[in-house]
């Protein structure tokens, strides 16, 4: 892994490494979020996202293999901050529906970071002419958008209304 950004390829590898670490951090955070959720549907959503995250991490490993590279050992500071902020919700006492609403908000911040990062990485892969990697990243991007939509549906169909009551 190059220490300098001399080319779009270098930037692409750095972004992929960032995503790899971000997904690893999410993998550790999701079981705690699932345990903290009171809504069975939210617990189920976090369980589903955990399985998707495992799959996405595996897909990123395959992308690195296809590129003949390994992820750099660097911490994704952006995801670290988002997860740290979300972890504050885990320690708060109070109304269960309000806590669930806060957990959804924290999870959506994670999703929005990932949507931006995968969108950028997929674009870089296309520009660099690696359509197989671009398709893999676009597929993960689609999953991240679907997860965000499911979280929005959970929030707007019930949980936010319960928290407001």
Key terms for this structure?
5 helices; 165 residues; mainly alpha; Ferritin
**Percent of residues in beta strands:** under 5%
Helix proportion: over 70%
What is the overall shape?
A: elongated
CATH level-4 homologous superfamily? Ferritin, core subunit, four-helix bundle
The biggest sheet, with number of strands, parallel, antiparallel or mixed sense and barrel status, is: none
Name the CATH architecture: Up-down Bundle
Number of helices: 5
Q: Structural class, from helix and strand content?
A: mainly alpha
CATH C-level label: Mainly Alpha
Low-confidence regions: none
As for the number of domains, it is 1
Overall mean pLDDT: 94
Task: Please count the beta strands (DSSP E, at least 2 residues each).
Answer: 0
Secondary-structure element order, N to C: HHHHH
Radius of gyration: 17 Å
Alpha carbon gap, first and last residue: 52 Å
User: Would you tell me which CATH topology applies?
Assistant: Ferritin
Structural commentary:
This protein has 165 residues and is mainly α. The chain has a single domain (8-69, 77-87, 94-164), classed as Ferritin. The chain is built from 5 helices and no strands. The protein has helices at 8-36, 40-67, 77-91, 96-127, 131-164. Helix 1 (8-36) packs antiparallel against helix 2, helix 1 packs parallel to helix 3 (77-91) and helix 3 (77-91) runs antiparallel to helix 4. The longest helix has 34 residues, at 131-164. It is elongated, with a radius of gyration of 17 Å. The chain starts with 7 loop residues before the first helix and ends with a helix. The model has no long low-confidence stretch (mean pLDDT 94).
């Amino acid at each position: 892994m190059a220490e300098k950004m001399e080319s779009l390829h270098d930037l692409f590898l750095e972004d992929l490494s960032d995503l790899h670490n971000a997904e690893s951090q999410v993998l550790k955070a999701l079981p705690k979020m699932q345990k903290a959720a009171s809504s069975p549907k939210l617990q189920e959503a976090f369980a589903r996202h955990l399985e998707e995250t495992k799959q996405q991490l595996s897909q990123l490993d395959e992308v690195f293999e296809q590129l003949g590279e390994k992820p750099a050992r660097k911490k994704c500071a952006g995801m670290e901050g988002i997860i740290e902020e979300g972890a504050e919700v885990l320690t708060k006492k109070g109304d269960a529906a309000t806590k669930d609403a806060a957990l959804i908000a924290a999870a959506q911040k994670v999703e929005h970071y990932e949507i931006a990062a995968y969108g950028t990485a997929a674009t870089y892969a296309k520009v660099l002419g690696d359509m197989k990697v671009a398709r893999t990243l676009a597929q993960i991007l689609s999953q991240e958008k679907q997860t965000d939509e499911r979280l929005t549906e959970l929030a707007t169909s019930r949980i936010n209304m319960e928290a407001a009551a």
